[in-house]
Amino acid sequence: MSFVSSDTIRDRFSQAMSTMYQQEVPQYGTLLTLVAEVNEATLAAQPALKTELENRGELERLNVERHGAIRLGTAAELHMMGRLFAVMGMEPVGYYDLSAAAVPVHSTAFRPVSTQALNRNPFRIFTSWLRLELIEDPALREHAAQILAARDIFTPGVKTLIEQCEQQGGLTDEEAHHFVTEALETFRWHQTATVDLPTYQALHDEHRLIADVVCFKGPHINHLTPRTLDIDEVQRLMPAHGIQPKAIIEGPPRRQHPILLRQTSFQALQESIEFKGHQQGAHTARFGEIEQRGMALTGKGRELYDQLLGQARQQAPHNDNVAHQKILADVFRDFPDDLDTLRRQGLAFFEYQLTDKGLAQAAASTATPATTEVSMEAFIEAGWVKASPLIYEDFLPVSAAGIFQSNLSDQQHNRDQQHDSDQPRAGHHGNASRDVFEAALGRPIIDELSLYAKRQAHSAQAVIEALTEGR
Ligand code: OOG
Ligand code: NI
């Protein structure tokens, strides 16, 4: 039997999802067009950026690059979802505990991990699991658990195909097409709720997210996010295209050399819902988001980022982006913004490549380095090796909390803002909840930093071997 690659299935699925979401939320289509226009203009204005993206194999993925998000209700749903994503080569990377920011979920991101798979299509799904234990009223908690236990968010067809894939080791072309169609059903929007209006209200009063997860047939995709090369420009142009962005751009400020991830979103839409007993109501769930990705930071770099972000957020207003960005920029002067310093101080991850000069040198193979670290700097100095930053492929808990909160009602929004300086960070609540998450998933979550570290180490080793071969 001949199987199609998991990359192909992921690529087809992300396209199908994007098409479905454009039909469901027309503003998403508008946003895609705007982002594509800004990206084109940015590349035209910055040929160096274009060359850099080309060199890193990222130019081709730019137009297909997006992430989405879903929220699940039970351990069994999380477990099956992990198996579904595995068919598409998407693995759980990173653990995000958002309860520290008053959002009652914890999360991981399912995404491809190898460089080749990322460059083919880096489609990711930020996947949250609701913490029912945070509902204070025991009767309501029990009721919510019962409602969730009664639903099955997967079609019989997709479950059969997941099993088939696991047993055969892949899917044929025809099975893969069938899988995409069936899998898509889980993420579809439903205008009918599975509960009556009073039940929805009670859960909504507890927390809007609880109602969003519990009252519907499945975990509707709640946003899809294209990658822009200039988020400030897209934020500026959004209102003219009939899209109202959230007040501030989350994440680090604009820089010469972007770090991590900057994100902004537009407000969730009010959508009419038919509740059980033919009662009409409304629910806001689905929104749009854009992101600009920068380089991945090491543990040391990340610590400095968290420290500066905490400092800036205490001073910066949360309702005025211009003022907010100005304070961020001031505070982040303490974060070096040239590639040599970022590399020498071990603040960011890099990939090493031989230059043409380095290739000639390797052919002559006369180099004699002392140690890896010293010699790598010497190689770079000699012009034999080029170091390019690795792009950040993951998410940020403080930003994610900000995105969640921007879609809550005003009352909850204000309440949540007071938790802002809590600095949610993986491990903040110890590892107990992470253990629960991994137990439900049935496998460990991959540590994102170790992925970047490995990629850097492999490239370093290859370069050093090439330059020292035959000694
Ligand atoms: C997820 C919010 C987080 C991001 O990009 O950080 C997020 C959600 O609202 O379900 O999408
Ligand atoms: Ni998002």
Question: Any overview of this molecule?
Answer:
Strand 8 (270-276) and strand 9 form a beta hairpin. Helix 4 packs across helix 7 (156-168). This protein has a five-stranded mixed sheet. A three-stranded mixed sheet has the order 5-8-9. Strands 7-10 form a two-stranded antiparallel ribbon. The protein is globular, with a radius of gyration of 23 Å. The protein has helices at residues 6-24, 26-45, 47-55, 75-87, 115-120, 138-149, 156-168, 173-186, 197-206, 208-214, 231-237, 299-315, 321-331, 339-344, 356-364, 372-382, 397-406, 410-417, 432-441, 448-468; strands at 66-72, 91-97, 105-111, 124-130, 192-196, 223-226, 261-266, 270-276, 279-284, 288-293, 350-354, 385-389. The chain is an alpha+beta fold and 471 residues long. It has one domain (6-305, 397-445): Uncharacterised protein PF07063, DUF1338 (2,3-Dihydroxybiphenyl 1,2-Dioxygenase, domain 1), CATH 3.10.180.80. The protein starts with 5 loop residues before the first helix and ends with a helix. Nickel (II) ion (NI) binds next to strand 1 and strand 6. GO terms for molecular function: dioxygenase activity. It holds the Pfam family HGLS. Its cofactor is Fe(2+). Residues 412-425 have a biased composition (Basic and acidic residues).
